[in-house]
Amino acid sequence: MNHTKCSTLLQKPRRQSRIIKCVYVVGFMDLFGVSMIIPLLSHHVKHLGASPTVAGIVGSTYGILQLFSSTIVGSWSDVVGRRYSLLTCLVLSSLGYGLLGLSTNITLFVIARIPVGLFKHSLSICRALLSDLVSEAERPLVMGHFNAASSVGFILGPVVGGYLAEHEGGFYTSSFTCAAIFLLNAGLVWMLPWSEALVKRTDANSNTHICEICPDYNAAKSLAYQNGSSQVSNHHAVPKEELPDPGSLAPGKPPSTFPGWRHVSLLQPAWRQLSSVGSRIQLVATSDMWDLFLVRLLMAIGIMLYYSNFTLAMEERFAIKPKVTGYLISYSSMLGALAGCLVGPVTQLYDKDMPALLLHSTMLTCGLIFLYAAAPNVGQVVLSSTFFAISTTIGRTCITDLELQRGGLQASGTLIGAGQSVTAVGRILAPLLSGLAQEFSPCGPPSLGVLLALSAAILLMFRIPKWSGRGKTKMAKL
User: Fold this and answer.
1) 424 near 301, Cβ under 8 Å?
2) 261, 353, 421, 439: least CB-packed within 10 angstroms?
3) Residues near 342 by Cβ (< 8 Å), separated by ≥ 6?
4) Closest CA to 427 of 307, 328, 332
5) In this predicted model, which residue has the larger pLDDT, 474 or 454?
């Protein structure tokens, strides 16, 4: 009987759940609304009478708040659950964008940016939710599709925002429209088929529970670990005692019976929630994942340096007008969105060897930044931009997937939030490094980006064999 149950669990096809499609829509609308506002912020601050220095300080407020809040909010989503944390972030972000539409002076503008800086983590929680819903094997494909949907929203948003800005009071109209989009997103999240998510979660984590009832699978798992493979082991960091009994995995059970939904109640005292958040952050901070976070930081700064003075460098090096450069950036962004759909096939081509894929995408990104920095003509810049969008999209998906692999299912929100905090550090450092590098040459920022990307590749070459030695990943085929 156990063998029959095991066979059923192993062969059960995973259907594309409605909730995953709804999360794609949430990601699209999120970046669609945000990208309506981003291009208009600097102009609005100037219109309010702020000096360049004050405008710079105000602009950095968002990044600093994101730096400190990303990990905390991500961990909080692990504690109280994805649904209520996502709803909270969407509603408070909507409040921030609504206040932005009322900002008639610098003080109101700064106040409006505070809730957005603290709670605009809806995309991170969506990624954590997707990682809860699918298996480790399906995760790169689903994450790639989510990134593609979000990127399309980021491409279309500035078009609508620019159109609204041409009319009187265009910035305020755009702000209220963005606030309405976030409220609409909150309504969509509230109506999501969470019972379907529960069933999907059961299917996605079947392999984790099969070992409890299937001796053959257990033997195969042991053999795989002896061979240093991680293809059998899904979500290895979930403690055995936290797994529910296989017989309890029924659709009618409440979410609290599943590992991903075993949270502190939202109605529990704040001190208990904070205690749980602190313990999860401490576990991540003391884990042996410094290498992945350092690679993320180096690559984030390198990629930002590539784009930091792109328009100015194209004008100074090749006498290209900003309008044409804008077309080139839009072209690259469209390719980046399409590349999200390629993540699944590429990971299949690599036989799900994510460390090797991350290493190769990092090396390719390094080469493409060098190609741009040394480009003698515009054609070479177009060539580098074409493949740069693809390599960076694949690289971002790889490093997120590896963080989740090594950190474990139970801390997915904390891990994704920590990754966003690391990226926020890059956003703070990149403009400073770009300004210093431009003192020497228009090619200075991308040249520095080459050195950082090369450092990340070298670090991966040394660290990937150590990951394999712990039996968590396969050795990258260099």
Assistant:
1) no
2) 439
3) 144, 390, 393, 394
4) 307
5) 454
Report the distance separating Cα 91 and Cα 184, nearest Å. Answer: 9
Is the pLDDT at 260 greater than 50, yes or no?
no
Measured CA to CA, the distance from residue 224 to residue 218 in angstroms comes to: 10
Distance, in Å, from the CA atom of 242 to the CA atom of 212, rounded to the nearest integer, reads 13
Query: pLDDT band for position 472 (50/70/90)?
Result: very low
pLDDT mean over 299-312: 85
The one-letter amino acid at 214:
C
Q: How many CB atoms lie within 10 A of CB 371?
A: 18
Structure tokens at 114: 């505070």
Global pTM reads: 0.74
Q: What are phi and psi of 168, to 5 degrees?
A: -65, 135
- 262 Rama class: left (phi>0) / alpha (psi -120 to 50) / beta: beta
Cβ partners under 8 Å of residue 254, min gap 6: none
Q: Is 6 exposed, middle or buried (0-12, 13-18, 19+ CB in 10 A)?
A: buried
Lowest-confidence segment of 133-147, 200-214, 337-351 by average pLDDT:
200-214
Phi and psi (nearest 5°) for 464?
Answer: -60, -45
Is the CB of residue 87 less than 8 Å from the CB of residue 431? no
Q: Which residues contact 103 (CB under 8 A, 6 or more apart)?
A: 44, 48, 109, 111, 112
